[in-house]
Amino acid sequence: MLIYDKEIKSYPWDKLYKRELFQGILFPVGRIFEDYATMYKVFMRAHKVYQTSQPLYQYVHVANSLSRNFNPKGEYHFFQAVKERFLFMQNHPWLINDMKRFTAETVSLTFTVLKRFIRMDRSISMVDEVKEIKAFFCSFAGFDREHLDVIRYMKIVLMMRFLTHYATFLRIVKN
């Protein structure tokens, strides 16, 4: 459940842990979304996980927080975490039931990040980072679409095929 970040989120603050689960695992320094890049490694070490639906913690969402607003460096950090997570699971496929579903989720998240970069202000220069995201995204050509809805799948395929023209397409649609 944690790997899909749906029912159990990658937040470290809403869980209790045994100290030994963190031995040798560090949060990446200087990055946001460091929890997304780390917590699956901690959970991998746990022999048992218990969940309760009883609210024991109150969290206040801040509207202008780093994780809620577009920030090119933050988006790149999120992409790094998504990529690291995918490569980790690719090397440990026995940890999840359905690698095809996880791959579709990774493609979808990478698509979202790439779309945000394509829409961003051109004065922000992160050329190498965008190239890395594009290369990773396009490496999934021909992935199994079984776990994506048709519209999302079509958008992803169109972006993969017409990546160089996608920004122009968005400007035309916007105008």
What does this protein structure show overall?
- The model has no long low-confidence stretch (mean pLDDT 83).
- The protein is built from 6 helices and no strands.
- α5 packs across α6.
- Helix content is 48%, strand content 0%.
- By secondary structure, it is mainly alpha-helical.
How is this fold's topology laid out?
Elements: H1 39-45, H2 72-91, H3 99-119, H4 127-138, H5 150-161, H6 163-174
Number of strands: 0
Mean pLDDT: 83
Main sheet properties: none
Number of helical regions:
6
Percentage of β-strand residues: under 5%
- Radius of gyration based on Cα positions: 18 Å
Order of helices and strands: HHHHHH
Low-confidence stretches: none
Q: Strand pairing plus helix content: what structural class? A: mainly alpha
List its traits.
175 residues; 0% strand; 6 helices; 48% helix; mainly alpha
Summarize the structure.
This protein has 175 residues and is mainly alpha-helical. Helices cover 48% and strands 0% of the residues.
